[in-house]
Amino acid sequence: MASAAEQLAANINIKAFAKAEDLKKRIWFTLGVLIVYRLGTYIPLPGINPAVMAEFAKSHGGGIFGMVDMFSGGALSRMSIMALNIMPYISASIIVQLMTAIVPTFEALKKEGESGRRKLNQYTRYLTVFIAVLQSYGAAVGLESLQGAAGSAVVDPGYFFRLTTVVTIVGATLFLMWLGEQITSRGIGNGISLVIFAGIVANLPSSIINALELGRTGALSYLFILFILIFSIGMMAFIVFMERAQRRVLIQYPKRQVGNKMFGGDSSHLPIKLNSTGVIPPIFASSLLLLPISIAQFSSAGSGPEWLQWILGSLHKGGAFYICLYLFLIVFFAFFYTSIVFNPQETAENLKKNGGFIAGYRPGKNTADYLDTLITRLTVMGAAYLAFVCAVPEFFYAAYALPFYLGGTTFLIAVSVPMDTVAQIQSHLLAHQYEGLLKKTRLKGARK
């Protein structure tokens, strides 16, 4: 019976999808934007020696450079115009969201509704430009000092190269930010997450080929490669299970008598996910760590300032200090972002206005305190889950010195983003079905 019901639901979804022309346009638009993004990652930065960059990428593929390159979809190793990817925008978003919790002016803007949100988005864009300028200039200076067997990484170093590099990379970053916003507004949603997901997925075939090549040359045993494959599948299954885990709080509504009829007396559930923040905490933590490291990485030859060398020495991938700081940032952002997406006082007030209550707790403050305690406990478990998923691959890298990047953030993005995208598509289908029902109802009413 269950399989027959699932098959019937699938057939209904397929039929609904075939009729949803607006959803088809959104999907095609999203695919077109992602193709434009992928083409942009192959446009080389002017004045770069590709042979030196390929040599540098090969020798640093398993460290921080490999991590940044994975997020950029291979744009960094090719040193394309989209080498920074969307990371400056994410870093700017983190800072602005932190400011909304610290600075009263930003907190007031957050409470203003749509107008305040637009102003905060404008501040985020300005800060994105500032961060992108800093990172692109640091990358240009680092590239000038980068040497390889084929010579210098920069054909003609100097201030003109730095200026063109900053203008080109900042312009490409802003264009990519705009593409992500277009996917959110005119596509199927989750624009920024889909851009990062597209870059990671695009790099997966080359990563698998590199792993098999290492097995063929004897650098890695085939048994160990098989173990990594099984570990990856198991990790993804674990992430799917944890992302679907939720606590369902029973909400009851009292009976009301209106005239001779009784209304109410129903019950529903308030679903609270175990990980209500999704993949945001690992992305935010990675962005903050990569903000200084992505600049310092180009000075690994020892020609950069002392503070850059200290960053590389202390925050090398697989190191104890790097792992501890990474996990601390994940836990911090898990609690911080949960406080933004879930407000116990507001939820309790809405329940009180609608006449709902949680059994055993009085409406109002008692309900808010209960929800606050519940969301805190769930966040502790969710943060521990995120920290575990992100820490295990780091320990793998530290123990076996893998020559390619393997990260927990990659697993989370590769699983969470498709799940969220499917949920977005289902919500569009549901809205289309409701529109069809409303049209039929209006037509019947007009005939009568």
Describe the SSE topology.
Elements: H1 2-19, H2 21-40, H3 50-59, H4 64-71, H5 87-102, H6 104-111, H7 114-144, E1 147-148, E2 151-152, H8 159-186, H9 191-217, H10 222-244, E3 246-252, E4 255-258, E5 261-264, E6 267-273, H11 280-296, H12 306-314, H13 320-341, H14 344-353, H15 365-400, H16 408-447
Helix pairs in contact: 2-8, 5-6, 5-7, 5-11, 6-7, 7-8, 7-11, 8-9, 9-16, 10-16, 11-12, 11-13, 13-15, 14-15, 15-16
Give an overview of the whole structure.
Helix 13 (320-341) packs antiparallel against helix 15 (365-400) and helix 15 packs across helix 16. It is built from 16 helices and six strands. Helix content is 72%, strand content 6%. The strands form three sheets. The protein has a two-stranded antiparallel sheet. It has a two-stranded antiparallel ribbon with strand order 3-6. It has a two-stranded antiparallel ribbon with strand order 4-5. It is mainly alpha-helical and 448 residues long. The two termini are 40 Å apart. The protein has one domain (2-447): Preprotein translocase SecY subunit (Orthogonal Bundle). Residues 1-12 have low confidence and may be disordered.
Percent helix, as a range, is over 70%
The largest pleated sheet is described as: 2 strands, antiparallel
- Give the amount of beta strand, in percent: 5-15%
Mean pLDDT: 79
- The total beta strand count reads 6
Q: What is the number of domains?
A: 1
CATH architecture: Orthogonal Bundle
How much is the radius of gyration in Å?
25 Å
In CATH terms, what is the fold-level topology? Preprotein translocase SecY subunit
Give the ordered list of helices and strands: HHHHHHHEEHHHEEEEHHHHHH
Mind telling me the CATH class?
Answer: Mainly Alpha
Q: Residue ranges: pLDDT <50 for 5 or more in a row?
A: 1-12
Number of helical elements: 16
Category by helix and strand content: mainly alpha
CATH H-level superfamily = SecY subunit domain
Distance between the termini: 40 Å
Give the overall form. globular
Strand order of the largest sheet: 1-2
